[in-house]
Amino acid sequence: MWLGTLAAQPASRVNLSFDAATHTVFINGLDGTLPGALAEHIPEPATMNKVFAVYFEDSLIPILGDYTAEGATLRFRPRFPFMPGRTHRAVFDLAALFTLAGRNTPVDTSPLRLTFRIDPAALSPRTRVTQVFPSAEVVPANLLRIYVHFSRPMTRHGIARHVRLLDQNGQPVEAAFLEMEDGLWDPDGQRLTLFLHPGRIKRGLALHEGMGSPLRPGFRYRLVVARETEDEDGLPLIEGFSKEFSVTAEDRTSPDVHKWMVTEPRAGGRQPLIVKADKALDAALFARLLHVENAAGQPLAGDTSVESQETCWRFVPRDIWRSGNYVLRIGARLEDPAGNRPTRLFDELAAPGGRRAQAHEVILRFTIGR
Amino acid sequence: MYRFGLTVLISTLVFAAPPASDRGVVTGPIKAKSYTKLAFGPDGILFVGDSMSARIYALDLDDRKPFEIVKALEIGDVEGKIAAMLGADARDVLIHDMAVNPVSKNAYLTVSRGRRGFVSPWQLPNDVASAGVLLRVTPAGAIEEVRLDNVKHSTLDISNPVNEKAEVDWKKSKQRVDAISDIVYAGGKLYVAGLSNEEFSSTMRVYPFPFQGAGSATSLEIYHGSHGKYETDSPVRAFLPFNIQGKPYLLASYLCTPLVLFPMEELKDKAHVKGTTIAELGSGSYPLDMVSFRSKGEDFVMVVNSARGLLLFKAQDLAKPQTPITTQIEGTAGVPFTPLRNAGVLQAENYGDHDLLLLARNSLNGELVLRTMHTERQ
Description:
The complex is a heterodimer.
Chain A: E1 15-19, E2 24-28, H1 33-40, H2 45-48, E3 52-56, E4 65-70, E5 73-78, E6 87-92, H3 94-100, E7 112-117, E8 129-133, E9 138-140, E10 145-150, E11 163-166, E12 184-185, E13 191-195, H4 198-201, H5 206-211, E14 220-225, E15 241-248, E16 261-263, E17 273-276, H6 283-289, E18 290-294, E19 302-307, E20 312-317, E21 324-330, E22 362-368
Parallel strand pairs in A: 9-15
Antiparallel strand pairs in A: 1-2, 2-5, 3-6, 4-5, 6-7, 8-10, 10-13, 11-14, 12-13, 14-15, 16-17, 17-20, 18-21, 19-20, 21-22
Chain B: E1 26-28, E2 37-40, E3 45-50, E4 55-60, E5 74-75, H1 78-86, E6 94-100, E7 107-112, H2 125-128, E8 133-137, E9 143-145, E10 151-157, E11 167-168, E12 173-174, E13 182-186, E14 189-195, E15 202-208, E16 216-224, E17 229-231, E18 238-244, E19 247-253, E20 258-263, E21 272-274, E22 276-281, E23 287-295, E24 298-305, E25 309-314, H3 315-319, E26 332-334, E27 338-340, E28 345-350, E29 355-361, E30 368-374
Parallel strand pairs in B: 16-21
Antiparallel strand pairs in B: 1-10, 2-3, 3-4, 4-10, 5-30, 6-7, 7-8, 8-9, 11-12, 13-14, 14-15, 15-16, 16-17, 18-19, 19-20, 20-22, 22-26, 23-24, 24-25, 25-27, 28-29, 29-30
C-alpha cells in the first residue's frame, strides 16, 4: 500500500501553490517517499478529489484533471486550461490523506486553501493576422469580400467591434460591412470573411443609389484589426494589424477563362500545373473551386495554392502525371474580388438588360505529353 | 445509440452476445480526435465513432452489472454540473451525443467546451467542436468522467472517409465531421452512416462485430420531397433497424426532413441503393435522434425533431405499403405521425423497457435536463 510509507508529516512544511505558465497546481513539501510511492499507482480522481481538488469559482464539483506525483511534489493539471480572468479554488486536506492511509490524523491540520486567477493581461499573446485578401494594394471600388486570416483560432463573438475600415482621414467608413456582430468564419475560426455591403454595391438597389459604394475610386483606405481582437483563449493579438490600399474604378467585367494560360507539366513527374488567370480572383473561391480530372472523369488528389496576388493557381498532384487528356473544371461560383463570375456579373440580374441570370461551370481541356 | 429492435416486428434479427472471441482486443489508451457518435452494442460494449480519425472504437468498460429501474431519473441543470467539471461556464458546455447501456442503465455523454462556437443555426454540435470528454451518468444521478487512458478495446478504421478539407458551404462546417453521422448495432453487425470520398458520398457501411474483415460500403440515394430532387450527398442523421413482414430494413431520417426505407439485403459492398421516401416531416429542421419502443402492446418509432419536438409514428403505419414520395411537396407528407408536446428535446434513448431517457432543454428557463419519460403513459 503506497500510503503505508507516510511518516508523521509535519503540516507546516506543506505548501499549496499555482503556476500560471503551466496551468498546474502543486503541493510541495510532502514527505519525499510519498510522491515516489504515489507515482507508481495514483488513485482514481474520484478518490484523489477528497484529498486534493480544484474548483471553478463557487462550484462544489471538482474540475476534471490529472494527478501526478514526483519527488516531494503532487501536481494537478486540469483537462482544459484554466480560464483566464476567472477565480479558481484549490483545497488540499492533509488530514484526509492520512485518513486515506489509515493513519491517525495529526493534530493541527486544517485543509490548505488557495484561490488563484490567471490575469489575462499578463499572458503573452500568441496570435497574429497572417494574411489579408485581396493581397493587391489596388482594389476595384465594387470590391465584395475581404478575407482576414489569423494564425490561430479566434473567439468568433463580437468581432465587429474590432474590425474597422478607415478612410484616408482616419475616419471610420459607416456601414462598410454587412452586419456582422459575430462575423462569418471558416470552420476552424481562423479565416474571417468581411462582406462590403452588397446592397451598396449592386446597381439598381436603393442602398447603392442612396449611399453609393463604401469604397470610392481615387481614394485610399485602411483596414484595421485591433490588438484587442481575442483568440479562442481570450487573449489579444500580438499586435494590431492594418493594411492600406487604394481604390480604382468599379470592375464590371467577367473573368475570361479563355484568356487563361495553362502551363502543362510533363508526364512522369509531379511538376505543378500552373494556371494563370486573366485577372485577380477571389482567393478562397479560386483555391477551392478549381479541380483537375483525368479522362475518366476522376478528380486528381493533390495540393493547391493561390499565388501572385490571386492571379495564379498551382496544383501539385499527389501522384505522378500520366500522359493523356485532362480537364480543369472551374466551378460556377468562382468569382473575382468584385463578385463577377466567368459566366455572370455580380449584379447582372439587377443591371439594365441583364441576360445571364444563371452562372455555369466552365471546363478547360489540356493534355499531358511525354 | 443502442436501439432495441421492435420485438414483434424484428424476428429475424437476433440480439445476441458476441462469440467469445478476443481477436483484436487490446488494453491501452484511446487516442481519439473526436468522440463523434455513441452506440451500445452487446454485453455492455460501447461503440465510439471518431469522424476526424475515421475510426470506430469498441470499448469494454466493464460496465455490465444489471440494473433494474425502480424510479424516475431527473437531473436538472446538467450543463451547469458539467461546466463545473470542465472549469467553464454552463454556456460553454456542449453535449454531442448520448447512449444508454441497456444492461447497467448508465447513460454516457460526449462533451466539449465548444458551445460558444455556434455561428449558424444550422450547425450541429459536431460542426462546432470535437468532443473530447466521455461522461457517465449513473441511475443514482452521479456524473463522473470515464477515463480512456487504459481501456480494453478493439478498433476499426473506416476506408475512404470524406476529405478533411471539404467544407459545407451553406453552414460553414467541415464535411469530415459527418464521416460518421450515426451508428447503430443490430444483429451482430455495426451499421455506420456517414460521408465517403466518393461522388455519391452518403454511405451506409456495415461491419461484423467483433470486428473482422473490411465490411461493406453502399452509397445511398433518396428523393427529398421538400427539396424536390434526388440527393446523394446528405448524410443519414439518425436511423433504426425496422422489419416489415419479416423483411429487415433500415429506417433513416435526413435533414429537412425525409424518412426513408432501405432494404438491408441491398446493402452490398460498392452497390448504389435508392431508398423509398415514405414521409416528409416538414422542412427547416434536423432529425436529432430516433428511438423505437413498445407501449401498451403497440410498437412505436419516435423521431426527435429540432423544430417540432417528438414525432410519434405507429410501427404498423410505417409498415403499411406506401406510395413513395417522388415529387416536390410542401409541408408534411406520407406516413402520419403525432407530434408530442415535448419541445427542446435533443437526445432520446431507451431506458429499460418502459422508459425513455431524454436530454431536453426547458423552453422556459433554458436549463438542460436529463429525465426519464414513461412510455406507458404518453
